[in-house]
Amino acid sequence: MALTQKDLTISKPLSPVYVLFGKQSYLIQLIKDKIINQALTQEEKEFNLSSYNMEETPIEAAIEDAETLPFIGEKRVVVIENPYFLTSERTKSKVEHDLKQLGRYLEAPSPDAVLIFIAFYEKLDQRKKVVKQLTKIGTTYELSQLSDDLLFKLLENIALEYDANYTKEGHEQLLALVGPQLSYLANEVKKFALYCGKDRPIDKHIVNELGARSLENNVFSLVDMVMKQQTANAYQLLNDLLKQKEEPVKILALIARQIRIVYQVSLYQNEGYTQKQMAAKLKLHPYAVKIAAGQAKTFKRQDLERALSQCTEADYQMKKGSMEKTLVLELLIHKIACHK
């Protein structure tokens, strides 16, 4: 389920244990800082804030710290990073952890301490006893999917720190340009805000002028040009990517991926799925589904099926080496655009 603004509110009394997990590293850092700032003053952080990396230090050291009375103030905060023992993932770490001691602590956590587990993992292993204990005694945040409104609000707040105005049209253009990864979006908004200040709103023109494009989003634009039969622009963008030493095989794979997404969205639309439901099924950001839905309207289903077949043929030609890779991509663009 997508997070909302209410989900990110940290209020007192604080939980004795927090578990922050997911792939949104920026958001995890944001919530961690909120918890710490609720628990400790700036002066208290020097004495009562500590951090332990579970790939280097046994959990017993962190627990012993949590059981130590605060030096100044009411709380001690212990941050536990990389707790791989909460997942099914393998690690090269040779550190041995006494999880029974952690379990005993969780049965009666110190009222003077706040434990924060920072887990940059997509999932926790719910079969493990320690995970069940943490879920029962603590507060868990799955920081992965954000609602559109919350994503805009978070980025708007970043712009406001620099007295800049982050607009909705700028937001939509930025999502189309770089995708939904929050840490990357935040860095881009900071850059725009420093440039614009109070004098100019962060609109789509600023985003297009200053925004950094990833290969994936450049290919997204390329596919959009092909579907709109803007072949001259598509060829120019392809040439620019090749000049940047991007691999033709990787470009082809991303073209095929984007067309496959449009095809899947087309199928789900015919079955009556909402864009929100499609985003959940395809594990995509809702805005990416919105764009794909618009692209699906410009191509018939048989044209999308043909385009996917042409991508497979182009992949075979590249791997076989029967034709120069750049020419394979150029012919693919021509075939897809002309069979509309």
From TrEMBL:
Query: Which terms does the record give in the GO molecular function aspect?
Result: DNA-directed DNA polymerase activity
Q: Which residues form the DNA polymerase III delta N-terminal domain?
A: 18-137
InterPro entries linked: DNA_pol3_clamp-load_cplx_C, DNA_pol3_delta-like_C, DNA_pol3_delta_N, DNA_polIII_delta, P-loop_NTPase
All copies of the DNA polymerase III delta subunit-like C-terminal domain together span 216-335
Q: Which domain of life is it from?
A: Bacteria
Which Gene3D superfamilies does its entry note? 1.10.8.60, 1.20.272.10, P-loop containing nucleotide triphosphate hydrolases (3.40.50.300)
Enumerate the catalysed reactions. Answer: DNA(n) + a 2'-deoxyribonucleoside 5'-triphosphate = DNA(n+1) + diphosphate
What keywords is this UniProt entry annotated with?
A: DNA replication, DNA-directed DNA polymerase, Nucleotidyltransferase, Transferase
Quick check: keyword Oxidoreductase in the entry?
no
**The protein's enzyme class:** transferase
EC annotation from Swiss-Prot or TrEMBL? 2.7.7.7
Record's Pfam families? DNA_pol3_delta (PF06144), DNA_pol3_delta_C (PF21694)
PANTHER family according to UniProt: DNA POLYMERASE III SUBUNIT DELTA
Q: Which family does it belong to?
A: Belongs to the DNA polymerase HolA subunit family.
What this protein is called in its record is DNA polymerase III subunit delta
